[in-house]
Amino acid sequence: MAKRLxxxxxxxxVTSVAACSEAPDTTLSIRNAADHIDVxxxxxxxxxxxxxxxxxxxxxxxxxxxxxxxxxGAPVTENxxxxxxxxxxxxWSWRGLFISGKGVGDAWVGDHITYIPVSRSTNTLxxxxxxxxxxxxxxxxxxxxxxxxxxxxxxxxxxxxxxxRSRLHVRVALTALVDGVAIAGSDNEKGYGGMSFRFGRADxxxxxxxxxxLQATPAPVITxxxxxxxxxxxxxxxxxxxxxxxKVDGAPWHSWILRQELSMQNCAYPGRIPATVSTQxxxxxxxxxxITQ
Length: 293
Known about the structure:
The protein has helices spanning 2-14, 17-20; strands spanning 29-32, 36-41, 44-50, 64-68, 90-94, 96-99, 102-105, 113-124, 130-140, 147-162, 165-176, 181-184, 193-197, 205-209, 212-214, 221-222, 226-231, 241-248, 251-252, 255-257, 265-268, 275-276, 283-292. Strands 8, 9, 10, 11, 14, 15, 17, 18, 19 and 23 form a 10-stranded antiparallel β-sheet that branches. Strands 1-2-3-4-5-13-21-20-16 form a 9-stranded antiparallel β-sheet, with no helix packed on it. The longest helix has 13 residues, at 2-14. It is mainly beta.
């Protein structure tokens, strides 16, 4: 990060921020470790995909992206912040998990849920990007015997930074392993759960969608296809904006929990009412993220 930020600030000092944003494409590399996969470019780390828990005391803190870096190298995600210790970068989780109508856990805070890594692989794409693939099984111990109830296939695509923008795409496919599986957000007016984004400086951002200004409210807000988080007076190295577009089964998802305080942003699927997960056809959640320096 220090090398990349120094290069960016040096360039800006002798030219302009706009000119520095037009840096040439870089080559991506993949670094595998026992519990994570790193994607880096020529100047440093771009993101880490945590595929196994970094701490055995928190077996549920896995399956998330952190840190995710701005083009300058500044980390824009937060993990285990003091205000919401269960938040973990970019993650996908639900407060309500059910089998045949009975609650079997809360993946948001790790109650009765363990993630079992099955496989992972990496590939280089023809367009210069990279692809990370993982398969994970969700297990609950809230049943008479531990039960594997969800199969997860996740793909993370990352592309080289270009024109001061870095892009990544997350695709999560969930298939039930037993009949009667359902997922739900929190059982209140918020209904939060699903694709979640713990970005820093959320208390200093303006939120827009479809050229309309949005204000955070306790309940979900209806948005356009893409939501942009624009930061007020960002410090050196911090990006000017982050844009996120979510989809569910290929269709844009417009119900968001938005926060303009130290908290997460959330594509709130399915909301408070449980949604059934099929044993035959996967439920597919997607998020496309663009970070603009």
